[in-house]
């Protein structure tokens, strides 16, 4: 392939004429599959007489070619031409040389290519690579050494999370990282960019080597000393800077990146392997020796270095980027939890709080700029923890909280004294001399400490009302928008504080209500959030009722201004609390919510196409906001259960949104739209014509990609069956589609057993609701279940085992004659019933036990001459299976009722939680008198563990024990998972059937109409079982009388 011609084509791709560019790109695409194309690209990139622009264009094309085709996978070969072996060999032999000869920008492109190549070829197809790397790391040419470190970093990154090939990384760390440490040490003393890049990449090599484990060589004392010395040298390296001119952009310069990665490496080493208090219980034995070495020999030095850096930063002699400040705060947070580290840190708490934490928690110039230029982003950073996760402000706040929680006796008075001092200074200063940013900072600190200061036994809890009324509420009228927003945020955090005067509460409410119309977006948002907890107060609820339409309109306007699910959560709670007042304007609210949804997802609306391939990072914020809107719609619908006519009207505006989501394949919103559909049908207890028009859309969605969402679809599909069974029974197409959904899920290797359970549940719903109406579907259901029940190891979980057996039991309850004919036709009778009898003990829930009783009893009602021979000789085991189930049936009902009461708050779990909280001493023991190394682990989790143990005990007691159930009839493998949990929301036609009365009636029916079967059963019972049958009859008579008296 002619190199100059190829260079000319790449030159044309940079031309201003779009037609010329397109023509060149088309030719390059055609040449891509030609032999020698990749080789020529790499040669071109390494040539000195080719312009930089052409080289960059070629390097990007080279990178894309490698990324798409190097794996050689079937999927890659379907879409892109393969790379032949000759070009692969040439690329591996020359890629390092090309990296060496290239500019920095192209180095990064080629290094990424190198990483892809070694991922698939090293070490088996690239055995000489380690030799090449060693030669580069020991070269005299600095650029070659830098190339070697870049390449080594890619090798380490390829193995950083590996477990099976961890030995490879350990060997690399032992053989090559000592040389890398020497390279870093030599680079630190230099000041040029290349040296700093070498130091920076060297530290990244170390950092990535300790991602999922620590190489044994790193635990050696001399290794820790060597690397530790390099880290300290880099962190302490003086760097000149202009205090007035430096900005966050400087953090991208090599010297600051080198400092950052030195600090990250130290932090990672300490938090994962060097801090005894943070070692997981399973790692203590493995890493305790290194943790002792670290805390004894390195921690004092690094603590001194970090504290010196903080001092330099607070005095203006050291510059720290936001990320570095965050990393240092994280390190100090880890030190708070460990005894020896805390002793070193404790004397400096006051200075750290006042000069390091506090300034970072104040409203900054950067905050002001963001407030003015992009208030939406400002709000998102303040109200969404994910958006602010890892920030310097959040890290400083976390450090403050760690001080207050883990070392409260030593730090809380210091923190509160500082806050009081700042508040007093602010209050005593003339208005024009007050510093609003310092007030913002201390309110921010108080907000961060709310969980500590407002806890039940907080010694200052009684002062919080005064604090709010004196220092917070007055700032609702501040002339500074950011201070109004901060005051609202602080008030919201302390929403649990009750004012002693109702008039004060109402006055505060009026102030917050007024701020909903503040000219500043962040203030309006925080006013909405502050209003949310206030509606828990009955007086405020009554007061807000008259403002409800206006308030809801403000909320909706906010959702149009900011894409955040936080505001929609507020709307959702208002809808739930004021459900009885929503009906008059529910349709308007629903329409506005739908309009908001379509605006948020406007890209999809204006460009209807399959969005499943869209970059989720680009639409994640919009998707979360849209999901919040949909959840609010669902809440609105479910709270209109008493107004079915309004729900029908809402369907007119809501269902187009559901159809839009399904047709555009917005899979991240499937859960929400199916929940809305479920709520609509459940609220009116019917399937409207509008809902039936969606059924076809749902089916087509399932056939496209909806099989992955069968669990989300199930409640809606169940509603179509439960409330629309007459149409299902009369419409063969609907039956066909429902069966296709069930069959596809049962047969597809794309889904798991939980999904197959959903298919079984849908089949059950059809049989229970359609008794006598869907005979043609029964054989298919039985066949799908038998395919799993009669194949060894086809079922891995007890959930699928039980539900597959219940498909058969439902079929027996539906029509035992049809079911037994199908089983006999395919010679499945003996196998199915054997599997059933062996696993009776796994039917643990009330619904399962009742269905088992009804299904087996239905078999006994079949005339003896129509019973399969396998069952004629097995009547006694079937009947004893019914008796066995009854023996635990009453206990199961009691356990279910007890747990349901707990979930509804009627049990004593809440009291148990309160008792445990009361036992927790807010002051605690003297937290500076921790025990030795073995007991250094923080005990903060002990309280939670104790609570969990007691709750588990309560649940276990309520559930009882079914251990004896396993003794009678045996069971399948013991490898199945635990018993199924009760589904309290499950409503089926079985709920109206009394199992005791059903059994008595069925027994009478058998006695009168099926004497042969009845005789075989009676003669085969022993005395104990005969007496138990009589007790069941007595219980049936008792319950029949109770039911009669209630009518």
Defining key terms:
1047 residues, mainly alpha, 55 helices
Textual characterization of the structure:
The longest helix has 29 residues, at 875-903. The chain is globular. With 1047 residues, it is mainly α. The protein is 71% helix and 0% strand. α11 (177-188) packs parallel to α13 (221-236), α48 packs antiparallel against α50 and α48 (846-860) packs parallel to α53. Mean pLDDT is 88; it is low at 608-618, 906-921 and 924-976.
Shape: globular
What structural class do you assign from the helix and strand content? mainly alpha
**Which whole number gives the mean pLDDT?**
88
Distance between the termini: 94 Å
Helix content: over 70%
Query: What proportion of the residues form beta strands (DSSP E)?
Result: under 5%
The profile of the biggest β sheet is: none
Q: How many DSSP H or I helices?
A: 55
Got a strand count? 0
Could you name the ranges where pLDDT drops below 50 across 5 or more consecutive residues? 608-618, 906-921, 924-976
What is the CA-based Rg, rounded?
Answer: 35 Å
């Amino acid at each position: 392939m002619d190199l100059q011609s190829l260079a000319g084509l790449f030159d044309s791709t940079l031309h201003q004429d779009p037609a010329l560019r397109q023509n060149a790109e088309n030719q390059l695409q055609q040449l891509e599959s030609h032999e020698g194309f990749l080789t020529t690209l790499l040669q071109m990139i390494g040539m000195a007489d080719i312009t930089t622009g052409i080289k960059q264009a070629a390097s990007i094309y080279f990178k894309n070619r490698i990324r798409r085709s190097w794996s050689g996978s079937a999927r890659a070969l379907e879409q892109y031409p393969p790379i032949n072996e000759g070009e692969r060999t040439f690329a591996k032999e020359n890629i390092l040389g090309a990296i060496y000869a290239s500019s920095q920008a192209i180095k990064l492109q080629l290094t990424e290519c190198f990483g892809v190549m070694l991922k698939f070829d090293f070490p088996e197809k690239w055995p000489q690579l380690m030799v090449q790397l060693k030669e580069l790391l020991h070269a005299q040419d600095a650029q070659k050494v830098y190339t070697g470190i870049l390449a080594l970093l890619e090798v380490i990154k390829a193995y950083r999370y590996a477990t099976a090939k961890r030995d490879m990384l350990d060997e690399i760390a032992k053989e090559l990282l000592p040389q890398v440490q020497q390279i870093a040490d030599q680079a630190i003393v230099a000041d040029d960019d290349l040296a700093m890049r070498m130091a920076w990449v060297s530290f990244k090599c170390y950092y990535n080597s300790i991602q999922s484990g620590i190489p044994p060589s790193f635990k050696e004392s001399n290794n820790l000393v060597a690397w530790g010395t390099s880290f300290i040298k880099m962190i302490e390296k003086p760097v000149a800077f202009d205090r007035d001119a430096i900005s966050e952009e400087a953090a991208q310069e090599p010297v600051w990146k080198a400092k950052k990665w030195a600090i990250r490496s130290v932090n990672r080493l300490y938090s994962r392997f060097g801090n005894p208090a943070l070692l997981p219980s399973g790692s203590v034995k493995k890493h305790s020796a290194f943790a002792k070495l670290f805390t004894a020999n390195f921690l004092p030095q690094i603590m001194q270095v970090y504290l010196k850096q903080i001092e330099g930063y607070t005095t203006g002699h050291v510059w720290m980027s936001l990320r570095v400040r965050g990393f240092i705060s994280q390190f100090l947070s880890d030190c708070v939890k460990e005894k020896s580290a805390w002793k070193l840190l404790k004397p400096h708490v006051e200075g750290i709080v006042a000069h390091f934490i506090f300034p970072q928690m104040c409203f900054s110039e950067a905050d002001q700029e963001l407030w003015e230029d992009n208030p939406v982003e400002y709000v998102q950073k303040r109200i969404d923890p994910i958006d602010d996760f890892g920030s310097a402000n959040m890290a400083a706040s976390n450090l403050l909280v760690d001080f207050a929680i883990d070392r409260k006796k030593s730090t809380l008075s210091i923190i509160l004294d500082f806050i009081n001092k700042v508040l007093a200074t602010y209050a005593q200063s003339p208005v024009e001399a007050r510093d609003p940013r310092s007030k913002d900072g201390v309110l921010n600190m108080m907000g961060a400490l709310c969980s500590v200061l407002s806890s039940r036994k907080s010694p200052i809890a009684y002062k919080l009302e005064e604090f709010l009324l004196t220092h917070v509420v007055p700032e609702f009228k501040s002339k500074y928008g950011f201070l109004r927003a901060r005051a609202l945020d602080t008030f919201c955090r302390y929403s649990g504080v009750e004012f002693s005067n109702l008039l004060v509460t109402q006055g505060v409410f009026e102030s917050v209500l007024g701020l909903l119309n503040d000219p500043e977006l962040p203030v309006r948002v925080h006013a909405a959030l502050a209003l949310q907890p206030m509606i828990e107060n009955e007086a405020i609820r009554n007061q807000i009722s008259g403002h409800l339409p206006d308030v809801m309109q403000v909320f909706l306007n906010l959702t149009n201004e900011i894409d955040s699910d936080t505001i929609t959560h507020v709307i959702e709670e208002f809808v739930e609390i004021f459900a009885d007042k929503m009906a008059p304007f529910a349709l308007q609210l629903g329409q506005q919510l739908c309009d908001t949804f379509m605006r948020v997802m406007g890209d999809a609306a204006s460009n209807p196409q399959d969005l499943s391939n869209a970059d989720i990072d680009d639409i994640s914020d919009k998707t979360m906001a849209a999901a919040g809107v949909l959840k609010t719609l669902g809440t609105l619908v479910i709270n209109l259960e008493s107004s079915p006519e309004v729900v029908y009207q809402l369907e007119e505006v809501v269902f187009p949104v559901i159809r839009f989501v399904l047709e555009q394949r917005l899979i991240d919103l499937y859960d929400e739209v199916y929940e809305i559909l479920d709520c609509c049908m459940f609220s009116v207890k019917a399937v409207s014509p509008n809902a039936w028009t969606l059924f076809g859309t749902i089916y087509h969605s399932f056939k496209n990609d909806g099989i992955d969402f069968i669990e989300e679809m199930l409640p809606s599909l169940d509603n179509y069956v439960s409330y629309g069974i007459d149409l299902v029974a009369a419409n063969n197409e609907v039956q066909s589609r429902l069966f296709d959904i069930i069959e596809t899920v049962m047969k597809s290797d794309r889904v798991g057993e939980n999904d197959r359970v959903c298919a079984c549940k849908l089949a059950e719903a059809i049989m229970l609701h359609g008794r006598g109406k869907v005979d043609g579907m029964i054989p298919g259901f039985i066949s799908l279940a038998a395919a799993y029940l009669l194949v060894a190891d086809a079922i891995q979980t007890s959930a699928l085992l039980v539900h597959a057996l219940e498909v058969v039991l439902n079929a027996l309850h539906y029509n035992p004659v049809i079911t037994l004919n199908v089983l006999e036709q395919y010679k499945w009778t003996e196998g199915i019933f054997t599997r059933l009898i062996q696993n009776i003990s796994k039917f643990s829930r009330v619904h399962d036990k009742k269905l088992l009783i009804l299904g087996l009893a239905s078999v006994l009602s079949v005339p003896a001459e129509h019973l399969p021979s396998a069952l004629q000789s097995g009547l006694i085991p079937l009947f004893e299976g019914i008796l066995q189930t009854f023996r635990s049936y009453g206990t199961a009902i009691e356990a279910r009722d007890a747990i349901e009461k707990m979930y509804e708050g009627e049990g004593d779990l809440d009291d148990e939680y309160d008792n445990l909280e009361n036992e927790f001493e807010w002051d605690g023991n003297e937290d500076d008198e921790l025990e030795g190394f073995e007991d250094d682990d923080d005990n903060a989790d002990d309280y939670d563990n104790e609570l969990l143990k007691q709750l588990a005990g309560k649940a276990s007691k309520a559930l009882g024990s079914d251990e004896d159930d396993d003794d009678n009839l045996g069971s399948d493998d013991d490898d199945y998972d635990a018993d199924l949990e009760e589904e309290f929301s499950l409503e089926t036609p079985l709920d109206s059937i009394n199992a005791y009365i059903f059994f008595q009636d069925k027994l009478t029916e058998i006695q009168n109409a099926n004497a042969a079967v009845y005789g075989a059963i009676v003669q085969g019972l022993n005395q104990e079982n005969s007496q138990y049958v009589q007790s069941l009859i007595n219980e049936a008579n008792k319950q029949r009388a109770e039911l009669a008296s209630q009518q």
